[in-house]
Design a protein that fits this description.
The protein has a single domain, classed as Leucine Aminopeptidase, subunit E, domain 1, CATH 3.40.220. By secondary structure, it is an alpha/beta fold. Strand 3 (55-60) and strand 4 form a beta hairpin. The protein has a 6-stranded mixed β-sheet with strand order 1-6-5-2-4-3. 25% of the residues lie in helices and 27% in strands. It is globular and about 35 Å long.
Length: 138
């Protein structure tokens, strides 16, 4: 469930858990995942192929970072993103009442040309049992 939406950076949230999107191809050197890989979680840059709905977690200081495999760079790679987001959030080992900061993905022109639908993606998050605050820089 979405408990809040904030214009800003998820890194500035007070929450212990920060989640963000990664691709099935495992090449996470660009976008927000690329930022995380270059600053906090080096192994995230090249994870190898993953399946939609998988998650990876990493402790960094007093935070736990959660990479949600929820899209692909293929032509129709955003078609199943809403369902993948629901599955990813629900599978995280986080109590349902503990908030998770999530960096909204799929907002770039490139992502939208490939089929990203921000409102459907938000719907996938809203259907989750977890308490999510969505952060966006737009």
């Amino acid at each position: 469930m979405i408990i809040n939406m904030i214009k800003g950076d998820a890194w500035n949230s007070p929450y212990k858990h920060i989640a963000f999107a990664v691709c099935t191809e495992g090449d996470n050197k660009s976008g927000y995942a690329g930022y995380v890989a270059s600053h906090y979680w080096k192994a995230l840059a090249k994870t190898g192929e993953k399946k939609l709905g998988e998650t990876m977690s990493y402790e960094f200081g007093d935070r736990i970072l959660h990479a949600l495999v929820c899209f692909s760079f293929t032509e129709d790679g955003w078609n199943k993103t809403p369902e993948a987001l629901t599955k990813c959030f629900d599978s995280l080992n986080v109590p349902e009442d503990e908030p998770i900061a999530f960096f909204l993905m799929g907002v770039s022109k490139t992502s939208q040309k490939r089929g990203s639908d921000i409102f459907n993606n938000l719907g996938g998050i809203a259907r989750s049992r977890k308490s999510v605050t969505v952060y966006a820089l737009i």
